[in-house]
Write a structure and sequence with these properties.
With about 260 residues, this protein is an alpha/beta fold. The chain has a single domain (about 1-250), classed as TIM Barrel (Alpha-Beta Barrel), CATH 3.20.20.150. It contains 11 helices and 12 strands. The protein has helices at about 15-30, 45-55, 65-70, 75-85, 95-100, 105-120, 145-150, 165-170, 175-180, 215-225, 240-250, and strands at about 1-5, 35, 60, 85-90, 125-130, 140, 140-145, 155-160, 185-190, 190-195, 200-205, 225-230. The strands form 3 sheets. The chain has an 8-stranded parallel beta sheet. The longest helix has 20 residues, at about 105-120. It is globular.
């Protein structure tokens, strides 16, 4: 299992191509060799390939706009072909971001995405769905995440399981990892801690919080996870590169690279 950096963590340092170039260099200096392209400025695939090569990095997965995935599937595949990027990721069902999880929005999404995911799979790529806590809500006795997996077979749809959001939704991350074995080439790691400062739950660097990462890592190895991308949506007043560094060092101590 390889450690990666989810660039959404440093999105504020990736608003221009010059900043993105510098950020990728800093990510490589920490020790990361894999990144997820998400939350960053617009870029051309040839430019990205050149900069990744310069720093010894590889990008195996994106978060890509839903409108492009569905509305220009051929263009989406061609873009990822140029990047030599296998996984075409979606951060969330767009309506879920606006409305929370609703059955009518799920039905619309599944009807739209299934033929698209089949086409992506036929091209040699794979569609990857990323969860938040809202996919852990229930409808007619099932979670929305379970319903997505029932409707979209594992050969056309992987899950970029976000361990933090599973826990935030009341789920057991390790149990979900075991349950979704066969879909989890890529996962997201972040940690959770209670903050006395703002009297609320906060995201934290891996190892700085209270999530059971030794058990999560055992489950990931058993499920055949290939890439674990460190993500911290909010670093509060800390330097996000320092947060990424602490997470990297913690995971490296368990034998990841």
């Amino acid at each position: 299992m390889k450690i990666g950096a989810q660039l959404y963590t440093v999105r504020n340092q990736c608003k221009t191509l010059d900043d993105l170039d510098e950020t990728l260099g800093k990510i490589a200096d920490i020790g990361y060799r894999h990144v997820q392209l998400s939350g960053i400025c617009a870029y051309e695939p040839d430019w990205m390939k050149r900069v990744l090569r310069k720093y010894g990095l590889k990008a195996e997965i994106t978060h890509y706009p839903y409108a492009k995935i569905v509305g220009d599937t051929d263009g989406t595949i061609a873009f990822h072909n140029k990047l030599k990027c296998k996984y075409i990721g979606l951060g969330s069902i767009p309506e879920f971001k606006k409305n929370g999880s609703r059955p009518e929005d799920l039905r619309k999404f599944l009807a739209e995405i299934k033929p698209v995911a089949e086409k992506i799979a036929a091209s040699g790529h794979k569609f990857m769905y990323h969860n938040h806590n809202m996919e852990l809500s229930h409808y007619e006795g099932k979670t929305y995440l379970d319903m997505i997996c029932e409707a979209l077979p594992a050969d056309i749809c992987g899950i970029t399981l976000d361990t933090y959001w599973v826990q935030a939704g009341g789920g057991d991350p390790a149990a979900y990892i075991r349950k979704l074995k066969g879909r989890l080439d890529c996962v997201h790691f972040k940690d959770m801690v209670y903050s006395g400062e703002d009297k609320a739950v906060r995201m934290a660097a891996i190892g700085d919080g209270n999530m059971n990462y030794p058990e999560i890592l055992r489950a990931c190895r058993g499920a055949g996870v290939k890439f674990a991308y460190v993500e911290q949506d909010n670093c509060y007043d800390e330097d996000p590169f320092e947060c990424l560094r602490r997470s990297y060092e913690y995971l490296k101590s368990f034998g990841l690279e």
